[in-house]
Amino acid sequence: MMNAIMYTVDAENQVELQEKTQLINQVWELQHTLEDLSARVDAVREEILKLKSENQVLGQYIENLMSASSVFQTTDTKSQRK
């Protein structure tokens, strides 16, 4: 009778230990996933800053081209009517 009780307790402890191990493994996996996502967010932020800077340079370049071209110059319609 005593052996049966001890076997039941050992089996319950074994199940509990397995459940705890599974939970620890899940937490570990989620922690790594979070770290990976955080690193990805940082990389995307850096890429956004780079692209914004490039857009500013391109915008300035386009403005310079437009100001240098007579096609995009504003015309004074009043002086042309006279």
From TrEMBL:
Pfam families according to UniProt: DUF2205 (PF10224)
Matches recorded under PANTHER family: SHORT COILED COIL PROTEIN (PTHR21614), SHORT COILED-COIL PROTEIN (PTHR21614:SF1)
InterPro entries: SCOC
Topology with respect to the bilayer: Peripheral membrane protein
Function: Positive regulator of amino acid starvation-induced autophagy.
Descriptive protein name: Short coiled-coil protein
Coiled coil segments of this chain: 27-54
UniProt-annotated location(s): Cytoplasm, Cytosol; Golgi apparatus membrane; Golgi apparatus, trans-Golgi network
Source organism per UniProt: Ursus americanus
Annotated GO CC locations: cytosol; Golgi membrane; trans-Golgi network
Cytoplasm found in the keyword field: yes
Family assignment from sequence similarity: Belongs to the SCOC family.
Keyword terms of this UniProt record: Coiled coil, Cytoplasm, Golgi apparatus, Membrane
Subunit structure: Homodimer. Interacts with ARL1, ARL2 and ARL3. Directly interacts with FEZ1 and UVRAG. The interaction with UVRAG is reduced by amino acid starvation, but the complex is stabilized in the presence of FEZ1. Interacts with NRBF2.
